[in-house]
Structures are given as structure tokens and as C-alpha cells.
Amino acid sequence: MSLLENGVSIENASVLVGHSSVRITERHYKPWVKTLQKKLEDEVRKAWG
User: Fold this and answer.
1) What is the structure's pLDDT at 38?
2) Which residues of the chain form beta strands (DSSP E)?
């Protein structure tokens, strides 16, 4: 989803695409949330130090 790839929060993207709940958006588009991806990558790097 280009909104999430361009830094729009998942909450705002959910409203913009018309989902009745942010959970629906999270279920389908969570992999595109840049901040979450960065956090996960940082955790993996730290674990493998």
C-alpha cells in the first residue's frame, strides 16, 4: 500500500481506505509499515550483534 510505504500512519491509512477497524488494515498491510519493519530489522541486528 503506497500510503504506508510513504509514511502515512496505519491508523490514518485505515480511515482513508474505508476500513471499519484498524485491525483489518493491520491484518492485510502490516508488512508495509516502515517503522515496524525498521524496528524488526534493528532487533534482528541487535540479536545477531
Assistant:
1) 82
2) none
Exposed / middle / buried, residue 4 (Cβ in 10 Å: 0-12, 13-18, 19+): buried
Please, are residues 5 and 32 in contact by the beta-carbon 8 Å criterion? yes
Q: Which value, in Å, is the radius of gyration of the alpha carbons in the chain? A: 12
- Per DSSP, 7 falls in state T
User: Max CA-CA distance within the chain?
Assistant: 42
Torsion angle of C-alpha atoms 27, 30, 32, 35, degrees rounded to 10: 170
- Residue range 18-32, pLDDT digits in tens: 999 999 998 888 777
What are 8's three cell numbers?
Answer: 502515512
